[in-house]
Specification:
Layout (H helix, E strand, L loop, with lengths): L1 H29 L7 H9 L20 E4 L2 E3 L2 H11 L6 E5 L5 H8 L3 E6 L2 H13 L5 E5 L12 E6 L8 H5 L1 E11 L5 E9 L2 E10 L13
Helix pairs in contact: 1-2
C-alpha cells in the first residue's frame, strides 16, 4: 500500500510539474511574444506537449526550441506552432488537413480547437507512434494516414484549413486545389537557409497570399518513406 501510494504521489508530482511548465510556456513564450488568440492559448495550456516527445527530452518539452523525434524529424518550437494556429483561425466543426503529423502534437492542438483533423505522414513509424499517443490521450476526431503529403488527401477534401509542417519550394498546387472556398493554407516556403511562412486564402478560386515571418522546417519530400 505504501509503495502504491508513493507511486501515485510521484505521478501527481510529475503532472503538477508539467502543468506548471505549460503555464510558463503560455505566459512567456506565447503571450509574451504577441500571441493573442485565446482559443490557441487555451489549447496549448491543455495539451501535454511532453507526451509527444521521446522520454529523454521530456524535461525540455516546454522549452523555446524544436526537439528531435527521430527519423530526422522534429517537433517545432511552441511559438511557431502557436503562430501557425493563430494565423489559420481554426473554429469548432471545421475540417482541417495537416501535412506532416510528426509526433502528433499539433494534431492534438487542432483537435483541441474543435477541428475534424485528417493528418498525413510519410514515415509509417511516426504515424503509428502519433496514433498511439493521440488515442491514449482521447483525441478521437483525428485520422492519421500514411501517404505523400505533397499530394494532400483529396478523398476528404475540401478543407477549411490546411497546415503544412515541412518546407516546400513553392506553394503546392495540389493542396491549394483541396481548399474550400474561403479556406486557408499555411506552408513554409523556401530553401533551408531562407524559409518564410506563407498564408494563402482561396477567394473566388484564386490565391490571396501574405507573408508571415521567417522559419526553419525540414523539407517537404514527395513519396512515402520505406523506413518502417
Amino acid at each position: 500500500m505504501l509503495v502504491e501510494s508513493s507511486r501515485v504521489m510521484s505521478e501527481q508530482a510529475q503532472a503538477d510539474f508539467f502543468a506548471g511548465e505549460r503555464v510558463q510556456m503560455v505566459a512567456k513564450q506565447l503571450r509574451g511574444r504577441g500571441i493573442v488568440d485565446e482559443a490557441v492559448l487555451a489549447a496549448m495550456a491543455i495539451v501535454p506537449r511532453h507526451e509527444f516527445v521521446p522520454a529523454e527530452f521530456r524535461l525540455r518539452a516546454y522549452g523555446d526550441h524544436p526537439i528531435p523525434i527521430g527519423l530526422g524529424q522534429t517537433i517545432s518550437q511552441p511559438f511557431i506552432v502557436a503562430l501557425m494556429l493563430e494565423a489559420l483561425t481554426i473554429g469548432p466543426g471545421q475540417t482541417v488537413l495537416e501535412v506532416g503529423t510528426g509526433s502528433g502534437y499539433q494534431t492534438a492542438l487542432l483537435a483541441e480547437l474543435g477541428a475534424r483533423v485528417y493528418s498525413v505522414e510519410r514515415h509509417p513509424a511516426l504515424a503509428r507512434s502519433a496514433t498511439e499517443t493521440l488515442t491514449r490521450l482521447g483525441y478521437d476526431k483525428v485520422t492519421v494516414l500514411v501517404g505523400d503529403g505533397s499530394l494532400g488527401l483529396p478523398q476528404h477534401a475540401p478543407y477549411d484549413a490546411i497546415v503544412v509542417s515541412a518546407a516546400a519550394s513553392e506553394i503546392p498546387l495540389a493542396l491549394f486545389q483541396q481548399l474550400a472556398e474561403g479556406g486557408r493554407l499555411l506552408v513554409p516556403v523556401g530553401p533551408m537557409e531562407a524559409q518564410r511562412l506563407e498564408w494563402v486564402r482561396k477567394e473566388d478560386g484564386k490565391a490571396v497570399t501574405r507573408e508571415l515571418e521567417g522559419c526553419r522546417f525540414v523539407p517537404l519530400i514527395e513519396g512515402v518513406s520505406d523506413e518502417s
